[in-house]
Amino acid sequence: MRDEIKRSSVPFREPSSILHSRSSILDLRLSFRLHPSSFPRVPLAVPYWSGATYRGILRSVLTGRVVTGPDLNQIQSLVIETLGVEEAVLCGSGSLALEIALRACGVGQGDEVVIPTFCCTAVVPPVLAVGAVPVFADVGAELNITVETVDAALTKKTKAVIVPHLFGNPADIGAIIDLARGKNIRVIDDAAQALGATIDGQPVGSFGDAGILSFGSEKVCAGLGGGVVVFRDKEILKRGVNIERPRALLFSMLWRRWTLPLLSRLNAAGPGEPPAPYRKETMANLNAAVALSLMQTLRKNVAVRRERVAAYRELLRTEERLTLMPHQRGSACLTQVVRVLPKRRGEDSASEIIEVLGNARYEIQGSYVPIHLIPPHQKWVRDTLSQAESVWEDLIELPCEPDVSFDHVERIASIVKRVVNS
Asked: What is the chain's Cα-based Rg?
């Protein structure tokens, strides 16, 4: 089940429905019919699995090392080495990793945690799990939170700031750390979408007081699930949660890698629904075996994604109604986000592009609905978050996975240009 809320106009793309505008955020409708995009040429976010991935799965299953085994120690050591940190704790999900990070940083009942409103909704439950209150911050032009938007959200109750690097693009976490220094505010480096990204050569995830990695769906290293919380200083890890042994499902690999779009849509969460609850379990050895193979191909994975971002920029750079969100140097390039400016007031060009691409069997999605606009989370809204509110409806995400060939990139770009100029 997906742990974030994104917008799409392709019939049957989200079992939930389609958000038409800010003023009609509750106007949801189900579209339950077969569609060519149910069997796409380019499915959404296909994991980058190699022969080593399948060999790791077979080895884990055939030896009976599904729940516990040597791959757990290997992935833990590799994460510590890759990020240059002192400690790494393996978890069954990125959400649990975030909860452990918050507890380790001393966040508790009544504290406030600043999070970006333009982000995955799965950031909220770990904040609530420790008894804290989420405070929404706006984003900057590149769709990440900035030192200015964080500063505007701080109060005397602020205990931590979570800094995601959306779409693999590094946020200016250094400036946010400088702001928090001296205020007794912890900074958590959320690299769930940015494994492989760097800032001035330092791996994203290794900044701040704690860091988060994820091997869940629609991530750079999308595996069978699982997360990691890392610490530069072992002394920070003084608090935690009770973690159970995982209840691994042997067929989860089939679900995550090959499930038909029909089935995944039937099981996805809708825009008004909370993310699926996460269990407080450790990572399974089966999941670790997959994650290990993905970490070993991480450099190639990121390099190929950067090539596709460069290709989109070259193919679409002359279109006046398109703004390609820039990727900073060192980005992991999870996706290429494009803002599509409508020709006329009330026109929804982004949804039109998504639908036309869906009809051509390219599974493209819109981007996040700002969390503060979603009814269950509106009770925590304190201020107008103008940047997120003004851009979210115009955004689409173009795929950058290694399985997306340059021929497909050219075809996608040509369809986008045709719709924009029609």
From this structure: 20
202: enclosing H helix or E strand: strand 202-203
| Chain CA centroid to CA 102, Å | 19
- Is 329 a residue whose pLDDT tops 70? yes
pLDDT attached to residue 38 = 55
Q: At what angle do helices 349-359 and 406-421 cross, to 10 degrees?
A: 130
Mean pLDDT across the chain: 85
Structural domains for the chain: 22-46+299-421 (3.90.1150.10), 51-297 (3.40.640.10)
Under 8 Å between Cβ of 123 and 162: yes
| Burial of residue 417, with CB atoms counted within 10 A of its CB: 0-12 exposed, 13-18 middle, 19 or more buried | middle
C-alpha to C-alpha distance for 153 and 144, rounded to whole angstroms:
14
Residue 384: the pLDDT is 86
Q: At what angle do helices 298-316 and 285-296 cross, to 10 degrees?
A: 60
Sign of CA dihedral 202, 206, 208, 213: positive
Average pLDDT (49-53) is 93
What pTM was computed for the model? 0.87
Chain CA centroid to CA 386, Å: 22
Give the C-alpha separation, 205 to 164, whole Å: 9
Start-to-end CA distance of the chain, whole Å, equals 36
Provide DSSP, 319-353: -TTEEEPPPPTT----EEEEEE--SSTT--HHHHH
Summarised one tens digit per residue, pLDDT across range 177-193 is 999 998 999 999 999 99
Give the pLDDT band of residue 271 (cuts 50, 70, 90). very low
**Cβ-defined contacts of 297-301 (< 8 Å, 24+):** 297/48, 297/50, 297/52, 298/82, 298/195, 298/196, 298/220, 298/221, 299/196, 300/402, 301/48, 301/196, 301/220, 301/221, 301/402
- Higher pLDDT residue, 44 or 417? 417
Q: Which position has the token pair 């390099």?
A: 303
| Res. 154: pLDDT tops 50 | yes
What DSSP string describes 131-183? T-EEEEE---TTSS--HHHHHHH--TTEEEEEEE-GGGPPP-HHHHHHHHTTT
Count of beta carbons in the 10 Å neighbourhood of residue 245: 11
Percent of the chain whose pLDDT exceeds 90: 71
Residue 250 has pLDDT above 50, yes or no: no
Residue 8, by phi and psi: left (phi above 0), alpha (psi -120 to 50) or beta? Answer: beta
